[in-house]
Amino acid sequence: MACLIYSVDQVTSTNIADALKRIMGFEEADPVEGMKSFRSGGTLMIEARGSIVETGFVDRCASKDVAVLLSMHSSARGVEVFTVHPEGNWGDDANLGGKPKMLSTASPANMLSMLKAISKKSGGLQATYEATHHGPLLDTPSFFVEVGGSERAVNSKELAGVLAGAIADFLGGGKAEYGKVAIGIGGTHYPGKFTRLALEGRYAFAHMMPKYSIHGDMLRQAIERSDVQVEKAVIEWKSLNAGQRNEIVQKLEETGIDYEKV
């Protein structure tokens, strides 16, 4: 059972929601905390206002297995892409929602299932994980699904429809198969190695800590903030410098979690 959240003040988010309403036959239901809501079978969709990264109300009203936040994707390089990612802030910066050094509850099996559903429908447009970033801070297992990267993609009803179709497949399908649940450490904001390992079925990733935001003191929280038990850490070894490697290995040994270098 899932709760979908979109913002009527964001064009991409609204385009995805409108497409889902058509595909899945959502019908308007009773308001939720003063917000419009829609239902299709066991799936609830809530229409929020304002920034999607400030939707902390989800913990008060989702009461579902997972919350999926529908959003635009921003890229300084203008690369068009579909993305899936958990929420949270590794450092002291919480300018995009949430709280400093606090992570939401990741949902690795659901994120992997969504990633695979998108990759099947993407039509050649890249489908990738993103490293954990921005708010809201939620206890409800949750993740973002996004499309964008360029002005064209952000405003494209066609791409929003593709993503909506993948979301509908995710909601109607079973969970993707995988070997182990892992946290990812290192790599870039778009962790290509983690995405490949996930699509190959080796791992379902929970939180992913990129090389530019290594905080050893956050590893225990990254391991604990998952709705499925984390069994391993996967480290993109060459992306880290010697100091970062030593810090990460020491903290992982303290937690008792095994690790693999990739």
Short description:
The protein is an alpha/beta fold. The chain is built from eight helices and 14 strands.
CATH superfamily of the largest domain: AF0625-like
Adjacency order of strands in the biggest sheet: 2-3-4-1-5-10-6-9
Q: What sort of overall outline do the alpha carbons produce when their principal axes are compared?
A: globular
**CATH architecture annotation of the largest domain:** 3-Layer(aba) Sandwich
Compute the CA-based radius of gyration. Answer: 17 Å
Report the biggest beta sheet as strand number plus sense, adding barrel if it closes.
Answer: 8 strands, mixed
Structural class: alpha/beta
The first-level CATH class of the largest domain is given as Alpha Beta
Helicity level: 25-40%
The total tally of domains equals: 2
Strand content: 25-35%
Number of strands: 14
Q: Average pLDDT, to the nearest integer? A: 95
Q: Do you know the CATH topology of the largest domain?
A: Aminopeptidase
Uncertain residue ranges: none
- What is the H/E string? EHEEEHEEEEHEEHHEHEHEHE
Number of helices: 8
First-residue to last-residue Cα separation: 34 Å
Structural write-up:
The chain has 262 residues and is α/β, with parallel strands linked by helices. The chain has eight helices and 14 strands. α1 (11-24) crosses α5 (157-172) and α3 (108-121) packs across α5 (157-172). The radius of gyration is 17 Å and the shape is globular. The model has no long low-confidence stretch (mean pLDDT 95).
